[in-house]
Amino acid sequence: MQKITVLMIGTGGYAAVYLRELLHSPRAEQFQVTGAVDPYAAMSEYGRELSDLGVPIYDTVEEFYQAQAAELAIIATPIYLHAYQAQYCMEHGGHVLCEKPICATLEDAKAMMATRDKTGLKLAIGFQWSFSEAILKLKQDILSGLYGNIRQIRTIVYFPRNLDYYHRGTGWAGKRRLDTGEWLLDSVASNATAHYLHNMLFLTGDKIDRSAEPKTMEAEVYRANSIEMFDTCALRIRTVKEVELLFYATHAVPMEQGRMPEFVLEGENGTVTLGYENGQEIMAGCLKDGRNISYGKPDADELRKLYCMGEAIRENTPLPCVPETALPHLKCICALAESFPETPEFPAE
User: Fold this and answer.
1) Peptide bond just before 101 cis, omega within 30 deg
2) Which regions of the chain does DSSP assign to beta strands (E)?
3) β-pair partners for 58
4) Is 300 helix (H, G, I), strand (E, B) or coil?
5) CB atoms closer than 10 angstroms to residue 40
6) β-strands 72-75, 4-9 pairing
């Protein structure tokens, strides 16, 4: 079988997770990295490895497409670059797997979708839990009515981050927008814990590749760090179908108070919990009729999204997370930015 040629946009940060898989995993033999885009590639381990392997590295997507083409572009760059890079790649014949969040503004998201529709190419958004076999099995059970009407999902996640986190890269972390005007809206809810906010919307969507639409949202956001956006949030979202979604997330905790993602889903006919026993991730359902269901680990295969994308390109199989799936999450992020033009600081005490 002919390999799927890959353009890797980004070589450091989360892009390194993709490159480790693409360059060193036996199951990635169906892919071949033929080029990369990253003006800072020399500063990353995998950028240097690509160079050693003779893979051409370019500063911009324009330079790449002037020299060659690729069947698939994987975008793992700062948020403000997602929309332009995704559109450019599709306009030049590449399917796109774009990391979360989809982008920074609703206008950009709509432009990405319009380009996808015009070109007829695939565009997936890398919320990895939406590609997880465990999460998809749970969603199928929800859609089949096994748990009845879903009343509430509550999620909590504490990801400690120190100042190095906000000083990484080119200094865009935690910013509302760049000095050049591009929107970022980078926060605890739009980046590191975005998966878990999106997951609640995803699980309550009425189709396998759709998320629930938020109707109302009450929120408190704060910052302990010297950033423009927020490092801590408490959200109460009510969907158009009257499901209550509670989301509590923060970076502003000491390392010893870190807390892996946990959630509780309450339905008419039973509950589902994600928790941990002896450090092992366990997601299980408990029905009122006494049945228990083990769903497996949502984090069992972080890069299943890559292989789903490969199958979609080869076999035209449906993707579970496309721009429409990611849009409700972005609506929440944009509403937070609009509601809090200035982020409240934690009181000193």
Assistant:
1) yes
2) 4-9, 31-37, 57-58, 72-75, 95-98, 123-125, 150-158, 214-222, 232-239, 244-250, 259-267, 270-277, 280-287, 292-296
3) 37
4) coil
5) 13
6) parallel
Residue 117 structural domain: 4-127
> Cβ atoms within 10 A of the Cβ of 143, count?
14
Instruction: Report long-range pairs for 92-96 (Cβ below 8 Å, ≥24 apart).
Output: 92/65, 93/69, 93/119, 93/121, 94/7, 94/69, 94/70, 94/121, 95/71, 95/121, 95/122, 95/123, 95/309, 95/312, 95/313, 96/72, 96/121, 96/122, 96/123, 96/124
Torsion of CA 113, 115, 118, 121, to 10 degrees: -80
Is residue 19 included in any domain, yes or no?
Answer: yes
Given 127, 155, 184, which residue is the final one in a domain? 127
Query: How far is it, in rounded angstroms, from Cα 220 to Cα 313?
Result: 42
- pLDDT tens string 17-73: 999 999 999 999 999 999 999 999 999 999 999 999 999 999 999 999 999 999 999
Per-state percent for the chain, helix, strand, coil, to nearest 5: 35, 25, 40
For residues 103 and 133, state if they share a domain: no
Q: Which of 127, 153, 172 is a domain's end point?
A: 127
Q: Which residue has the tokens 């939406």?
A: 130
Strands 270-277 and 232-239: what pairing? unpaired
Whether 307 is in a domain gets the answer: no
Other beta carbons less than 10 A from residue 85's beta carbon: 22
Summarised one tens digit per residue, pLDDT across range 269-310 is 999 999 998 888 999 999 999 999 999 999 999 999 999 999
Q: How many Å apart are CA 10 and CA 16, to the nearest integer?
A: 8
φ, ψ of residue 196 in degrees (nearest 5)? -85, -30
pTM for the complete prediction?
0.96
Q: In what order do the strands lie in the sheet with 123-125?
A: 57-58, 31-37, 4-9, 72-75, 95-98, 123-125
Whether residues 206 and 271 share a domain: the answer is yes
Residue with tokens 């071949």: 32
- Cα–Cα distance measured from residue 21 to residue 306, given in angstroms and rounded to the nearest whole number: 9
Q: How far apart are CA 289 and CA 338, in angstroms?
A: 45
Specify burial of residue 76 (Cβ count, 10 A radius: 0-12, 13-18, 19+).
buried
